[in-house]
UniProtKB/TrEMBL annotation:
<dbReference type="Pfam" id="PF00892">
    <property type="entry name" value="EamA"/>
</dbReference>
<feature type="transmembrane region" description="Helical">
    <location>
        <begin position="20"/>
        <end position="39"/>
    </location>
</feature>
<feature type="transmembrane region" description="Helical">
    <location>
        <begin position="51"/>
        <end position="72"/>
    </location>
</feature>
<keyword id="KW-1003">Cell membrane</keyword>
<feature type="transmembrane region" description="Helical">
    <location>
        <begin position="116"/>
        <end position="134"/>
    </location>
</feature>
<feature type="transmembrane region" description="Helical">
    <location>
        <begin position="140"/>
        <end position="156"/>
    </location>
</feature>
<dbReference type="InterPro" id="IPR037185">
    <property type="entry name" value="EmrE-like"/>
</dbReference>
<dbReference type="GO" id="GO:0005886">
    <property type="term" value="C:plasma membrane"/>
</dbReference>
<protein>
    <recommendedName>
        <fullName>EamA domain-containing protein</fullName>
    </recommendedName>
</protein>
<feature type="domain" description="EamA">
    <location>
        <begin position="23"/>
        <end position="154"/>
    </location>
</feature>
<feature type="transmembrane region" description="Helical">
    <location>
        <begin position="84"/>
        <end position="104"/>
    </location>
</feature>
<dbReference type="InterPro" id="IPR000620">
    <property type="entry name" value="EamA_dom"/>
</dbReference>
<keyword id="KW-0472">Membrane</keyword>
<keyword id="KW-0812">Transmembrane</keyword>
<dbReference type="InterPro" id="IPR051258">
    <property type="entry name" value="Diverse_Substrate_Transporter"/>
</dbReference>
<keyword id="KW-1133">Transmembrane helix</keyword>
Length: 159
């Protein structure tokens, strides 16, 4: 897990920037939240909880919390449109619900450390897709970070 964290740091740093910025702090907070989520989910899944109801409760809570948070924090009004509905379906249903349903199922056979290592691949995959599809240019530190993440996955899976 430490090796994957080092790789993520290399993947995400911006050369020439000094110190932490707001994005770094949010990323760190998100990583802590995911770690707590993975550990707590592991505890409940190991108790032979039925997966579908467990998933539905999680998804319902996240949906409700996100809607309330958007109303409180965001100053821009929501403009409902066909594009917004499509974005919600793609990111909400496919990107979130499907991914978390698979994660809940997979955690029945994986331990929390293995789950965390697999989660660490996400920024690398995002960087690769951004390079291939979005024309972004990843610097040498980013590619080195991606290699370290891959090495962490290989090391973590080799025992």
């Amino acid at each position: 897990v430490f090796l994957a964290t080092v790789g993520l740091y290399l993947l995400l740093i911006s050369p020439g920037e000094n110190g932490l910025n707001q994005g770094d702090i949010l990323t760190f907070g998100c990583a802590i939240s995911f770690a707590i989520h993975i550990i707590m989910q592991d505890i409940y899944i190991k108790k032979e909880v039925r997966l579908l109801p467990f998933f539905c409760v999680q998804s319902g809570f996240v949906t409700l919390f996100s809607l309330l948070n958007a109303q409180i924090v965001e100053s821009t009004p929501i403009i409902w449109s066909d594009q917004l509905y499509i974005a919600i379906i793609i990111t909400g249903v496919l990107g979130t619900f499907a991914a978390f349903l698979i994660m809940i199922w997979a955690q029945k056979i994986l331990n929390p450390a293995e789950t965390a290592i697999i989660f660490s691949i996400e920024p690398l995959a995002a960087a690769v897709f951004a390079t291939m599809l979005g024309g972004e240019i990843l610097g040498i530190w980013g590619w080195m970070g991606g290699i370290v993440v891959c090495l962490a996955v290989i090391y973590g899976e080799s025992g």
